[in-house]
Amino acid sequence: MNVNQVIKRTNYLDWPEYFMATAFLAAMRSKDPITQVGACIVNGKNIIVGIGYNGMPNGCSDDKFPWQKSKDKLTTKHTYVCHAELNAVLNKNCTDLYGCTMYVGLFPCNECAKVIIQSGIKKVVYLSDKHSYKAETIAAKKMFDVAGVTYEPFSPKNKKIVIDFEEIDWNNMQQCDFSPNKDEVDVLENSLEPLHISGDSNANQ
Ligand SMILES: Nc1ccn([C@H]2C[C@H](O)[C@@H](COP(=O)(O)O)O2)c(=O)n1
Prior knowledge:
The structure is a single chain. This protein is an alpha/beta fold. About 25% of the residues lie in helices and about 15% in strands. The chain contains five helices and five strands, in the order αββαβαβαβα. The longest helix is centred in the first third of the chain and has 13 residues, at about 15-25. Ligand LCLUPRNS binds near residues 35 and 81.
C-alpha cells in the first residue's frame, strides 16, 4: 500500500477547542443548579495539568450546604462554593503551573485571579465575560494587567462539539490491507501453542 494515498482526518478538534471542551465537560459535574463552570489548565506542551469545576469543598456535603442565592451570608452558596478555577489549580498533577494557560467558561473573579497569578499561570482564555460590569471582574482584570497575565476570549471554530458514544462504529472501522479482521485473529490465536512463562509469576512485564 502506498502510504501517500492515506489522508489524515481533517475534522479533528484543534487544541483550543479540545481544552475548552474539556472545561465544559468538567462543568457538567457541577451540582450548582444555576451556573456550571469548568476550568482546564494546560502547559506549554499542550498537556492538561489540572481540571476543576465549581462545587462544595471536600467533606462539605452538597446535599447539606445551600445551593440558593441569598443576601444572608450564611445561607448563600457564594460563601461556600469553591470556584472552578480554584479547584483546577488545586487539582494540578504537576509541581508547578508556571507559564500555563487556563481555559475557563466564565471570566475569573478577583479571588480566583489572585490564585491564578500566584500559581504562575500566564494566560486565561474564557468563553463568557457576562459579569464584566461587576467590581470582582474589574478588579480581576486590574490585577491580571499589572501581574502580566494575559486574557482573551475564546472564539470557537465549531459552535457545538457533541459527544456521542455511538458515533464511532468500532466494528466497522476501515482496516489497513494487512490488518487481520476478528475472524482471522481468532483462527490465528487458536492455532498458537499455549505460552509457558517460567520464573517469577509476579514479574512486572
Ligand atoms: N469565574 C467563576 C464564576 C463563578 N463560578 C461559580 C460560583 C458559583 O457556583 C456559580 C455562580 O453562581 P451564580 O451567581 O451565577 O448563580 O459559578 C465559578 O466557578 N467561576
